[in-house]
Design goal:
mainly alpha; Arc Repressor Mutant, subunit A; Tetracycline Repressor, domain 2; 2 domains
Length: 224
């Protein structure tokens, strides 16, 4: 008889995988370890996911969906940043998995809904097309992610945690105030390359011409 879907078990598997990955990466994330941490058997895990990469893909897709749901509630750009940080700190293990190798396939060529949502909102706020603001968003993204990982990995608590969050928000305000000026933000270094494309699924590129979309079957229980 075909196995019956068990959402609770599958969620336990993904939660266990995120904890193991955050603890030690690929060295600790084995199918047997996932099964043990999820309170099930190794064959049961294999019934739902082909291998470790399949689990990680499903976890990334779920985390992206949940992050998008959180950020989409924002009424302002600043609130988008705040909700992004709050999500990351609440779901630290899954968040770490989401950003591990985010600039390489297969993660590079997967949907980035919250990235695109924030870029669209920046374009609505400043004018122009979303693509024109990719570099600005990468700067904001780096600020948010840096604050999140500093708090998560640094185990910031109490006033230090609170001050770090507000320092990030204050810096975001300063960045946007500068971006709103007639001359905008002065860019250093080379112009953004036309072949450096982010947040556009299979069309995404990092500009070095070496990316290749991974051809795989759909992940176990991942959702787009």
């Amino acid at each position: 008889m075909p196995r019956q879907p068990d959402p609770e078990l599958e969620q336990r598997i993904l939660d266990a995988a995120s904890r193991l990955w955050a603890r030690g990466g690929e060295k600790t994330l084995t199918m047997r370890a996932v099964a043990k941490a999820a309170g099930t058997t190794t064959p049961t895990v294999y019934e739902r996911y082909r291998d470790r990469d399949d689990i990680l893909r499903a976890l990334r897709m779920q985390t992206r969906e949940n992050l998008y749901a959180a950020v989409s509630r924002a009424r302002t750009l600043r609130e988008s940043v705040q909700l992004h940080i709050e999500f990351a700190l609440q779901y630290g293990h899954a968040y770490e998995v989401l950003f591990d190798g985010v600039g390489k396939p297969p993660s590079l060529h997967e949907p980035w809904p919250s990235f695109n949502l924030m870029r669209d909102r920046i374009a609505q706020h400043l004018g122009g097309t979303p693509r024109e603001h990719t570099r600005l968003l990468v700067g904001i993204w780096s600020l948010m992610h840096g604050a999140c990982m500093l708090i998560i990995r640094g185990e910031f608590e109490g006033p230090l945690r609170q001050q770090t969050v507000h320092a990030c928000l204050d810096t975001f305000d300063a960045i946007m105030e500068c971006a709103e000026r007639p001359k905008g933000i002065r860019n250093s270094g080379p112009k953004w390359p036309a072949n450096l494309i982010l947040g556009e699924g299979k069309h995404s590129r990092t500009g070095n011409g070496k990316e290749a979309v991974e051809k795989t079957k759909p992940a176990g229980k991942s959702r787009r």
